[in-house]
Amino acid sequence: MRQIAVLPEILINKIAAGEVVERPSSVVKELVENSLDAGATRIKVEIEKGGSKQIKVTDNGEGIAGDFLPVALQRHATSKLQSLEELDSISSLGFRGEALPSIASVSLFEITSKTKDQLSGFRIKVEGGRIVEQTDIGAPDGTMIEVRELFFNTPARRKFLKTQVTETRHIIDAINGLALAYPHCGFELVSDGRQLFDYNIAGDYKSRVKDVLGGDFDKMVEFSDKGDRISLSGFTIKPEFALKNRAQIYFIVNGRRISSPLLYSALMRAYGEFLIKGRYPQAVIYIFMDPSALDINVSPTKSEVRFSDERSIYGALMSAVRKCITSHDVIPSGFGSVKPGFGVEEENESADYRERIRAAAESFFSRSKSSYISENQRAFKMHTGKSPASLENIRPTPERKTGDASESLASKPADERSTIVEKSTREESVFELTPYRVEQFAHMFIIAFSRDQITIIDQHAAHERILYERALKSFEHQKMSSQKLLMPVNIEMEPGMISGAEEYFELLNNLGFELERFGPRSLAIYAVPAVASGKNPETLVRDLLSDLMEYGDESEDRFKLAAQRFACHAAVRGGDNLSEEMMRGLVRELFKSENPYICPHGRPTIIRYTVEGLRSQFGR
Ligand SMILES: Nc1ncnc2c1ncn2[C@@H]1O[C@H](COP(=O)(O)OP(=O)(O)O)[C@@H](O)[C@H]1O
Ligand SMILES: [Mg+2]
């Protein structure tokens, strides 16, 4: 065996380069970070052949004095960190003193720099880690670094480079990440002589986000959620515009762009049911927090961080984004993305839509009841007092004991004491429907005309959504109100069935049923939920019990199953005639629900045609 020896500096740097310099974009990132740390307000990046031939970064920062220029190229030489204590509150992007020597060890490297105080600039040329030239030279204030033939002496690395297009994309992404974090600096990128962008100094984050996202900016919604310990803000895409790749997500934590599986999953979770499978959000998210609750020294590229309180940051991001996307308009447009005059895309769009809805249903039902409740509890506030004719309040007139359930929607509120639950998080920006006219169409749909849109609502799906949420709540805290039957109804059942059914009595009791075993083969119904008092009590109870017994064992969550089955059986159906008052009640209630846009099976409840959409359809 050979003797143990400390590696020569050049070799150490080359090894370190393996970590810091993965590809051209890592060079760009390190150099631009240095420029930013040097207080630059203008940074120009020029690349050739995706950066593999040349990367040149020019800045107007404070520069490096001639005496220190060779030092900057040494390993662990940094001007940004002097003590251990500083590591916890580091505010510069760099601090490890690794980038320059690493890059210089795997390229033909040249640095030219001049500080304000010096009369002339200074230049050093390095080839594969060896200084080959040092000269005084006239130069403007600031620093210019040129990196040619990256990985010329590490052929393996060079082989792994992807196409120029891919490498250029990575470079764009790296600069964009920094540009989003530093709006007060201008950034220009030139690739093979062609300018790809030139972001002017921006007054605030928002204008920079606009620069970076370009036309996509209009697809975003803004959010801001400032707590005492953490502040979150940013822009996130309206679900209907979600992308087919996940590249366009920027998390900027205390001014540093990071990649974080934790934040990513919080973001995805926030979108949850609103995303089609295989689609991803686009987002720029700024997080500011106490730096001591954050460890940035996790990886040499500093692109990962460790949060000391992962749960709370996860929760904070999740709920901020969720609130933002649900408080905005997530109703699909009736037009889809059909271009005027072409029917081709229609098919795709509806297939896409079906897929979205399917995925939505899947994720909706896979959430456990407890998470559903706790997530939503925060979003709800109890509202007591005078309530409009809410569905729960509506009772049928006694003569109309059986028959069309929809009739119960219309009658006057009988119980002013009952409370309704209102969503408090829904802000002004929310789409609220106050139609000036409602019409029923094909005994199945409600067409609501409002000032600038026509909304089509599936009456059964909408009512199901309302009842579903109400049923879930009834299990948690608020029993649904009952309607006593004038005469108890007896149902005959197999003795085995009756025992099975008994297991569900308590659950059904929350929903407003009063049931009792009546001898070995029969069951008595004393009361039914007020909202379902128009339904035939026997059919309702039978259908519900048989569903529960059939699916109950497979279901992970009995509450959800019960709520869903109840909603399905108790809701008005297609074919039911609705009066204007019923329709208005239904629309009003629908928009009070947590998730008005899809029914518990995941089908849409609403489709909308806006004036704008119509205009463009007609080519106006
Ligand atoms: N563009 C620049 N302008 C001014 N100083 C720079 C620039 N690039 C590098 N430096 C100086 O060189 C030092 C080493 O840079 P680097 O190897 O990237 O390490 P780090 O950024 O971690 O300190 C920096 O600490 C800084 O003092
Ligand atoms: Mg650096």
Please explain how this structure is put together.
This protein has three domains: 9-201, 2-Layer Sandwich (Heat Shock Protein 90); 206-327, Ribosomal Protein S5, domain 2, CATH 3.30.230; 377-610, Ribosomal Protein S8, Chain: A, domain 1. The chain is built from 19 helices and 24 strands. Helices cover 35% and strands 23% of the residues. Helix 13 packs antiparallel against helix 17 (558-570) and helix 13 (459-476) crosses helix 18. The chain has 620 residues and is an alpha+beta fold. Strand 18 and strand 19 form a beta hairpin. The strands form six sheets. It has an eight-stranded mixed β-sheet, covered by helices on one side. Strands 9-10-13-11-12 form a five-stranded mixed β-sheet. The chain binds adenosine-5'-diphosphate and magnesium ion (MG). Residues 30, 34-35, 38, 59, 61-64, 72, 77-80, 94-100, 143 line the site of adenosine-5'-diphosphate.
Summed up, what is this model?
The chain has 620 residues and is of the alpha+beta class. The protein is built from 19 helices and 24 strands.
Report, as a whole number of angstroms, the end-to-end distance. Answer: 83 Å
Radius of gyration: 32 Å
Structural class estimated from helices and strands: alpha+beta
Bound molecules: adenosine-5'-diphosphate, magnesium ion
Write down the domain tally: 3
> Largest sheet at a glance?
8 strands, mixed
Overall CATH architecture of the largest domain: 2-Layer Sandwich
